């Protein structure tokens, strides 16, 4: 397998490039609109053809480049079937393997950050989206968030994997790139150790985080698989080309 971790530094978003050497196909997990050209160049430099883009969930802090990449490279768009987006070519279903050549991702429904959030397991790795971050987790106070559901998703599903399983999150704000399930079980201050469901729900409900500045445009834009909606105020136009600083994971 060919693997590359790509980082968009302004929104602190990780995009993951996976390539099949046998077929020459590639997929991108959670690509971001402002860096579509960089990501496609990375695919091409490796001698691959982009076959799919795959989303973990409908994002609130940036716009996906899935639609743009489909227009330019002819790639197909995959995302959670539960979202029922007309622009999606392939619906991801819990436990039903997603196959591209020799690469087989196992989708894991991990609600809590959003109700239709998915993580993906492959070859000793977990691509955890916003459900499990490095020593953190995604917020649960908007867009169908549910702290109790997130607790069960992470501790009941993701923490069930072997301790050596590598954790690749959708964001990190401290320049960290990778973790393991064992490390998160031991060190995650929100979900690790002996944290109880009641404690976690109280913690998440008491964070009092600021309202995400771009959510009202990102969510409808991502429901179209990567369209910058009409009416974006001038001071937010940069989100359509270059994401402004925002810790919304």
Structural overview:
The protein has a single domain (2-241), classed as Metallo-beta-lactamase, Chain A (4-Layer Sandwich), CATH 3.60.15.10. The chain contains seven helices and twelve strands. The chain has helices spanning 36-45, 66-73, 147-157, 181-187, 197-205, 215-223, 238-241; strands at 2-8, 13-20, 25-29, 49-54, 76-80, 90-92, 98-100, 103-109, 118-122, 125-129, 166-169, 179-180. The strands form two sheets. Strands 1-2-3-4-5-6 form a six-stranded mixed β-sheet, covered by helices on one side. Helix 3 (147-157) packs across helix 5 (197-205).
Quaternary state of the chains: single chain
Q: N-to-C SSE series?
A: EEEHEHEEEEEEHEEHHHH
Strand order of the largest sheet: 1-2-3-4-5-6
Total separate domains? 1
CATH class: Alpha Beta
* Average pLDDT, all residues: 94
Keywords: Hydrolase, Metal-binding
GO biological process, one term: glutathione metabolic process
GO molecular function, one term: metal ion binding
InterPro entries: Metallo-B-lactamas (IPR001279), Mito_Persulfide_Diox (IPR051682), POD-like_MBL-fold (IPR044528), RibonucZ/Hydroxyglut_hydro (IPR036866)
């Amino acid at each position: 397998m060919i693997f590359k971790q790509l980082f968009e530094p302004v929104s602190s978003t990780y995009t993951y490039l996976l390539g099949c050497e046998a077929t020459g196909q590639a997929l991108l997990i959670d690509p971001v609109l402002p860096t579509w050209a960089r990501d496609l160049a990375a695919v091409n430099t490796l001698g691959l053809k982009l076959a799919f883009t795959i989303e973990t969930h409908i994002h609130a802090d940036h716009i996906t480049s899935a639609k743009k990449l489909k227009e330019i490279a002819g790639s197909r768009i995959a995302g959670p079937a539960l979202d029922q987006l007309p622009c999606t070519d392939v619906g991801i279903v819990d436990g039903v393997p997603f196959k591209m050549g020799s690469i087989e991702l196992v989708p894991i429904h991990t609600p809590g950050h959003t109700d239709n959030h998915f993580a993906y397991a492959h070859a000793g790795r977990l691509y955890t989206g916003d459900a499990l971050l490095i020593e953190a987790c995604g917020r649960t106070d908007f867009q169908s968030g549910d702290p109790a559901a997130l607790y069960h998703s992470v501790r009941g599903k993701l923490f069930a994997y072997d301790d050596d399983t590598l954790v690749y999150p959708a964001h990190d704000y401290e320049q960290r790139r990778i973790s393991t399930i064992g490390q998160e079980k031991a060190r995650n201050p929100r979900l690790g150790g002996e944290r109880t469901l009641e404690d976690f729900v109280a913690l998440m409900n008491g964070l009092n985080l600021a309202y995400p500045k771009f959510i009202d445009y990102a969510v409808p834009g991502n429901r179209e698989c990567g369209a910058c909606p009409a009416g974006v105020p001038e001071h937010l136009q940069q989100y359509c080309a270059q994401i402004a600083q925002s810790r919304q994971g």
